[in-house]
Design brief:
By secondary structure, the chain is α/β, with parallel strands linked by helices. 27% of the residues lie in helices and 24% in strands. Strands 2-3-4-5-6-7-8-9 form an eight-stranded parallel β-barrel, surrounded by four helices. A six-stranded antiparallel β-barrel has the order 10-13-16-15-14-17. A two-stranded antiparallel sheet has the order 11-12. The structure holds pyridoxal-5'-phosphate. Residues 32, 34, 78, 158, 190-191, 206-209, 216 line the site of pyridoxal-5'-phosphate (PLP).
């Protein structure tokens, strides 16, 4: 069998959930498992995070999958419903919904639901993506309160710069000034806010990336928060080449050896989700690619990533032969470091792991 494998560590999820609780001990935890559990598999992530108070997903199908798997906690649809039929389904499965725009209130008012729904009313506190503008927020709340299909309302917003030096002071004060007379529960904090801004934890926190063991903050490694990677992506060396000075490898001959170089070919390519532009953002002359580990030793990718394979430098790893173990990311190679060498964030790499990669779940 082709040797690529994504191993999911259930215990890392449980550990990272404890890290969330340590930072936000008074808040309930809504574990964000959208995008197929950030690429880990929705049900794998949910199993690891079963102690969470709730789950947040994007699509109603993901929510129903969780209900059908037996999860009884709060399940929130992060963008709410897209039409009236999803509202009926939401009521049937006891889902909670975000309401972020007027047409969603119209749908709620016109529906005839058997049970009223809990609603998370979203304010646009400055990100300008989803949500009611601050000056429209209270009138939206008034309509929800008057609507027979609405049970409880949670006040919700999302921050654009919780992970950098600009912080959340401006949007938080907008949110607070609009809601100061209200006593509803509040939900604001993503991972970066949980780790950096305890003044915005409130009733619910909504961690995503930190639960998977990657960092939400560019200059702070996941390890510095005691987070453990929930996924290890591994493969093997399937061919070894020795190239001479002046010879080049791969499509476009993007890497040319300056000395005799032992090169390993790894069974992992962009069709597995590994970024094709790996290494294009490497920042010094000696650095040609993204970090990768072979036989437990750090090295780097070389040349262009192909659809099904990539190259790596084995010059310093004499024991590496065909069949040698390779870690693309995980305990030895933080996914965030691979992401940096690819000009992106760990979120994108994890979400992109493709359907052809087999998964193995271990309970260690
Ligand atoms: C994705 C998402 C989160 C989780 O964000 P992380 O940065 O992964 O912690 C929280 N809230 C909302 C509304 C989201 O869309």
């Amino acid at each position: 069998m082709r040797p690529i494998l994504a191993t999911i560590h259930t215990s890392a999820f449980a550990h990272n959930l404890q890290v969330v609780k340590k930072h936000a001990p008074k808040s309930k935890v809504m574990a964000v498992v959208k995008a197929n559990g950030y690429g880990h598999g929705l049900l794998h992530a949910a199993a690891g995070l079963k102690a969470a108070d709730g789950f947040a997903v994007l699509g109603i199908n993901e929510a129903i999958k969780l209900r059908e798997a037996g999860y009884q906690q709060t399940i929130l649809l992060l963008e709410g419903v897209f039409d009236a039929s999803e509202l009926t389904l939401s009521a049937r499965h006891h889902l909670e919904i975000v309401v972020h725009c007027l047409p969603q209130i119209d749908i709620l008012e016109m529906a005839k639901l058997t049970t009223p729904l809990n609603v998370h009313l979203k304010m646009d506190s400055g990100m300008h993506r989803l949500g009611f503008a601050p000056h429209d927020y209270l009138s939206a709340l008034k309509r929800l309160k008057a609507c027979a299909n609405v049970a409880n309302v949670t006040l919700m917003s999302h921050f654009a710069t919780a992970d950098d030096e600009r912080g959340i002071d401006a949007p938080l004060s907008v949110f607070k000034s609009v809601t100061k007379a209200l006593t509803h529960p509040i939900s604001l904090a993503n991972s970066a806010t949980i780790l950096r801004h305890p003044n915005a934890h409130f009733d619910w926190v909504r961690p995503g990336i930190m639960l998977y063991g990657a960092t939400p903050i560019a200059d702070a490694p996941a390890k510095s928060f005691d987070l453990k990677p929930a996924m290890t992506l591994t493969s093997e060396i399937i061919s070894v080449q020795t190239i001479q000075k002046g010879e080049s490898i791969g499509y476009g001959h993007r890497f040319t050896a300056t000395k005799t170089t032992k090169v390993g070919i790894v069974a992992c390519g962009y069709a597995d989700g590994y970024p094709r532009h790996a290494g294009q953002f490497a920042n010094d002359e000696l650095q040609h690619g993204a970090p990768i580990a072979v036989c437990g030793q750090m090295t780097q990718t070389l040349g262009r990533v192909s659809m099904d394979m990539l190259f790596c430098d084995l010059s310093q790893i004499p024991e590496a032969h065909i069949g040698a173990p390779v870690e693309l990311w995980g305990e030895t190679v933080p996914v965030d470091n691979v992401a940096t060498a690819c000009g992106t964030v760990g979120y994108e790499l994890l979400c992109a792991v493709s359907a052809r990669v087999p998964f193995k779940v271990i309970q260690n």
